[in-house]
């Protein structure tokens, strides 16, 4: 059981990181979108390993089935041929990459200093098997106000997207 | 058992790749997709700490983050469409005027 968990974790982690790297470096945006979908699906697998079944299915249905379809739809609407022939990285790419690596080094140092201090509890018998029920309980009792605010945020985003994407006359 | 550190390292790797994508690519759509990648890395962190403490609070916050990502994608792609209708390009360098 442990080795199976470990093997699954390594599989999903390698898949996620490899396709994320491919996503950032590909010239064709459609390929990038497909690689991002692979990353999101492997992350969903990680969620399943962490016994977050509800978030697993939300990730698959909402992220992969909703947001990424929106992305692919917009990619189809904008003209790919022109942008594919242009330079893909901006002129500051070296400085930007170095700064990102410095940032990563800081985080790496912080995690490295505290490594081994945090451990997951052994196979969770203490966690309720009814994950969806537990999430819904928390969402509709303790987190009611943030939930309503999130719904207003979605309404605002919907109106904003319609206004932005509307083709202006003339 | 897999220690928490492994999940944190995975999350850090995805986060760094996302930051590099946002900072170095010229294509606005790739930049938006890199932001999705960053949010995803945050979700992994929330999930592993939720598992560690045995509560679902982290998962509830991850739901809020996914909601936020959906809103951001909708508005961002709307802006990209409007921009493309006006300038016929999706490169960030070309976004240099406020009014046309």
How much helicity do the residues of chain B have? over 70%
| Backbone CA Rg of chain B | 17 Å
Specify the structural class of chain B: mainly alpha
CATH architecture of chain B: Orthogonal Bundle
* Structural classification of chain A: mainly alpha
From the N-terminal CA to the C-terminal CA of chain A, the straight-line distance is 65 Å
| CATH-defined fold name of chain B | Helix Hairpins
Short characterization:
The complex is a heterodimer of chains A (170) and B (100). Chain A has seven helices and no strands.
Q: How would you characterize this protein structure?
A:
The complex is a heterodimer of chains A (170) and B (100). By secondary structure, chain A is mostly helical. Chain A has helices spanning 2-25, 29-49, 53-77, 80-84, 93-113, 131-140, 144-165. Chain A is globular and about 55 Å long. Chain B has one domain (4-89): Helix Hairpins (Orthogonal Bundle), CATH 1.10.287.3510. Chains A and B meet through helix 1, helix 2, helix 3, helix 5 and helix 6 of A and helix 1, helix 2 and helix 3 of B.
Features:
heterodimer; A: 170 residues; mainly alpha; Four Helix Bundle (Hemerythrin (Met), subunit A); 2 domains; 7 helices; B: 100 residues; Helix Hairpins; 78% helix; elongated
Give the helix/strand layout:
The complex is a heterodimer of chains A (170) and B (100).
Chain A: H1 2-25, H2 29-49, H3 53-77, H4 80-84, H5 93-113, H6 131-140, H7 144-165
Chain B: H1 4-24, H2 28-53, H3 57-87
Helix pairs in contact in B: 1-2, 2-3
